[in-house]
Specification:
mainly alpha, extended, about 325 residues
């Protein structure tokens, strides 16, 4: 026993025991530190789940709001949307040509027009009874103008906007269609199929002509869905309201019917479209002098007459005033 105590009390054994105790303490401290440190990936996953949950909740709330609005509008659908099938089809075609592809675009358009008309009527009544008092002293024309003008402006504002969008879209499609034909011809002669060429053209036209690119992308997606290409292109011509696209579809139908080369047909039709573009540019250039004639007459002839005839008129008026002054 005494030998064991002497051995334990020796300096070497004490140093070894202290080193072992220190090492153990350090190991426990490091282990506790790693246990307390949260996993960054776990924190990131929790944050991702939280953000995703918030987005899902917001989407659900938006869907509930939309469904509530849809239910309210469905009650007045017979009053808002056209009941005749031909009128409904024509209105649907106009909304599609303006770029509104929603299932309820016609109904929403009429609803917005009705709501804005009610708002215009309220604005007119507010102007009549508040801004322009007293109402009793106003004439019939003033009353009708004060109430009717805001109502008519609010009623025709959605119609003007849709017609404006429709005209801009058709103009953009008309301007970009010759370039689209050239791209289709290049892709076809490079060995790509018509579907691949349409996809490529839709991607290339996205920046310059987004409306036409959207139409080509719609064609590509419908063809992928299994619809016949010629029917899809014919529908594209109806949606765009462009006679050039309808003629292009006719060319493709004839090429498929008679078995001729699609590349040759596209080459001939693209050349015709380029010639047509040049003719339109020349027509606008030839019309320009006629349009400038009125401006030239208004801003050039009056100053010229003042410069040429002004001194004579001044001399005559001075002479006449002198003669009347020296008279009897």
């Amino acid at each position: 026993m005494q030998q064991i105590l002497d051995m334990l009390s020796s300096p070497l054994v004490l140093i070894v025991l202290l080193m072992a105790a220190g090492t153990t303490l350090v190991l426990f401290t490091v282990a506790a530190k790693f246990e307390d440190t949260p996993d960054p990936m776990k924190k990131f996953s929790e944050q991702s789940r939280t953000v995703l949950g918030d987005e899902v909740k917001s989407l659900n709330r938006a869907k509930k709001k939309e469904s509530a609005i849809e239910k309210k509008l469905e009650k007045y659908e017979a009053f808002l949307a056209p009941t005749d099938s031909k009128q409904a089809e024509a209105a649907r075609k106009e909304m599609i040509q303006a770029g509104y592809y929603g299932r309820n675009a016609v109904r929403d358009f009429h609803a917005i027009k009705f709501i804005m008309a009610i708002g215009g009527l309220l604005v007119g009544l507010l102007m009549f009874y508040v801004v322009l008092p007293p109402a009793e002293d106003a004439g019939m024309i003033t009353r009708v103008a004060t109430i009717g003008v805001p109502l008519l402006v609010a009623w025709y504002a959605p119609i003007w906007w849709v017609n404006k969008r429709r005209a801009e879209r058709q103009s953009q499609i008309s301007r970009g269609f010759p370039d689209a034909l050239d791209m289709l011809l290049i892709c076809t002669e490079a060995g790509q199929s018509m579907d691949q060429s349409i996809n490529r053209v839709a991607k290339e036209l996205q920046v310059g002509y987004p409306a036409l690119a959207e139409e080509f992308a719609t064609v590509a997606n419908e063809v992928k869905a299994g619809k016949d290409r010629l029917d899809v292109l014919r529908d594209m011509g109806e949606r765009c309201g462009n006679n050039d696209i309808k003629s292009f579809v006719t060319v493709l139908i004839q090429s498929a019917t008679y078995g001729t080369s699609v590349a040759d047909s596209l080459r001939v039709y693209a050349s015709e479209m380029r010639d047509k573009r040049v003719m339109l540019a020349e027509e606008k250039a030839n019309v320009l002098p006629t349009k400038l004639t009125l401006g030239t007459m208004m801003f050039t002839v009056p100053p010229l007459l003042i410069i040429l005839i002004g001194p004579s008129v001044y001399g005559v008026s001075t002479m006449l005033s002198t003669m009347s002054f020296n008279g009897p």
